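Possible regression after last week's pipeline update?

I re-ran a chain I had predicted before the update to compare outputs. Posting the input and the new output here so someone can diff against the archived version. Not blocking, just want to make sure nothing changed silently.
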Amino acid sequence: VASLPADLKSVGRAAQAEVQGRFKELEDGIEAKKQALAQSLAQKYKEAHDRADAELKKIEEANEGTFKKFA
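New output (post-update):
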């Protein structure tokens, strides 16, 4: 913008502001997607962890019954 002739500087500043606004929108969109992806991954991890805990509890309960038979 600084290298533009005086009569085009206002047009250059307006174009610069518009481009900066578009980049800001892109950055915000990327950040929102990143947060959504992180939330989704965290939810899937928690669900998998809960399923694994439930299966482990079933195995422990089955083993507990087996040990009682030997006692």
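Follow-up from reviewer: compared with the archived run. The mean pLDDT is 92. Marking as no regression found.
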